[in-house]
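Trying the structure run again after the queue cleared.
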Amino acid sequence: MIYGHIANWREEQRLMKQLVLKEIFRWLITQPDTLDPGKFAVGDTGFNAIVMREEPVVPGMETFEAHRTNLDIHLCLKGAEVIRVALTTGLTIAKEYDAAKDAVLLTPPPADQYSTLLMTRGMFAILGPQDAHLPFHPAGEDSILKLVVKVPVSSLV
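Done. Tokens:
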């Protein structure tokens, strides 16, 4: 997992030795916080970004998700959210892996076994296959506008 502010991505790029991540971040810093929800091409990378406007998670519907073939880059465009993150090791499967969605749903771990990431405007998180996550927990009263890029792990080798 990598967590930081989009304004500092150049300082963080030493951690992003893969050209594809550099290209994605070069595209991300050019995006306004007024994008409409939908799917957008990420420059010439061949990847897509999904812009979502979401209301907070409904209590009782709190399953973590994890991916096997993709990592997620989350960027907060507007509002504020908390993303809960835990290692997938030891979590119980709530819904079997769906290859078409590249997602497995996992039962939430106890509160002392996950971390929280505060995502405000401009904050980003890169979550790998080992990072089970539960986004869309409110950290304010506004709805959340965020952008997520799915990056195949195989493109980073």
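The radius of gyration is 15 Å. Worth checking whether this holds up in the mutant runs.
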